[in-house]
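Pipeline run #58 for the internal structure catalog. This entry was flagged by the ingest filter as a single-chain record with no existing model, so it goes straight to prediction. Upstream metadata was stripped on purpose; only the residue string is passed forward. Reviewer on rotation: M.T. Logging verbosity set to normal.
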Amino acid sequence: MTTGEWDEYLGDDLRVTSALSIGPSERALTDPGLAQRLIESLDLFDDTHPRSIPHEDESAPEIQRLEHKLDLLLHLVAESLHPQRPDPVEVTLSRNGIVLPAETVPENCDRLEIYLSRLLPQPCVLGVETPTTAGNVQLMRWAGMEGSLREALARWIFRLHRREIADKRQKVDASHN
C-alpha cells in the first residue's frame, strides 16, 4: 500500500512522519480538554528546537543553569513515573488518523498511548478505530475526537511539519558551507 492509498485513513490534510513512543493502552482516554491543552502547550516542553523569539536574558548563565536544572528535574520525574515507554517508531500522522509499522498494536486495539514529548511522563491516550493492516503498516482513524481536539492535533502536526522543513533546510545550508 502506497502513501497515496493512505488517503482513506489520513484524509487529504497535511501529514507528517515522526518518531514517537506509541503503543496500545488499557488506560482511560485522556479528557479531550486536557489533551487539547497538552497538545497546544507542547512547545513549552520541546527542547530540541529553539524558541522562535529568544529573550535577551536567556543567554545569561543563571538562566541557562536554571533551565538545565529544570530539564533534569523533568527528566527524572518522567523516568520515575513511567520508566517503561514503548520504543519510538516512525509514524505518519494527520488530523484524521495515523499509520504505524505493522504489528505495533494488536488487531483489537481501540486506544493508543502517545508520548508527545520525551520530557512528559504521562502519555496522551486517544481513541482509534480498529486497525487495518495493509502490507507492512497498520492504518487507523481517530475515534471519538471532538473538533477542538482535532484542531489542536492539526496545529501540532503543522508545527512538526515546519520543523521538519527547517531541519532539511539547515542540512542543505550546512552542506553548501
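catalog note: The CA atoms of residues 57 and 101 lie 44 Å apart.
catalog note: The chain has one domain: 3-50+58-176.
status: ready for reviewer M.T.
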